[in-house]
Design a protein that fits this description.
The chain contains six helices and no strands. It is mainly α. Helix 1 packs across helix 3, helix 2 packs across helix 3 and helix 2 packs across helix 4. It is rod-shaped. About 10% of the residues are buried.
Length: about 120
């Protein structure tokens, strides 16, 4: 069954519990083994699989034990920065070169010349 926004919480919890139960059974894990791996009671696993409300940390432990925790990233992705925030982070792009002289890295170098100054023969 597809989970939709129009469904009640009870229907969604029942579907999630059934999916977790099917995943557990496909991996050939008993409720007691999953409870031990997750560090919670077997009764909590039973409640989750029946679609009863449980505390979020218990559900996270079950997801971790079944190696499904990373899928929460798909469920609630990290929000992207707004376009204005991206512009602020990007900084201002240069549009032209700065005015002024270029600094020399070697202060002892002779200044550049054309070679046709007085007293110098052209090369």
């Amino acid at each position: 069954m597809k989970i939709e926004n129009s469904q009640s919480d009870a229907v969604i919890l029942t579907e999630l519990g059934a999916r977790l139960a099917r995943t557990r059974l496909e991996r050939n894990i008993s409720q007691a083994e999953l409870a031990a791996e997750a560090g919670i009671g077997k009764r909590t696993i039973e409640r989750i699989e029946r679609g009863e409300p449980v505390k979020l940390p218990a559900l996270l432990r079950v997801l971790r034990a079944l190696n499904l925790l990373e899928r929460l990233e798909l469920l609630v992705p990290e929000p992207l920065p707004s376009p204005l925030e991206r512009l602020k982070q990007q900084g201002r792009a240069r549009r032209r070169a700065a005015r002024g002289t270029v600094e020399r890295s070697d202060d002892t170098a002779a200044p550049w010349t054309w070679g046709d100054e007085e007293g110098k023969a052209p090369r």
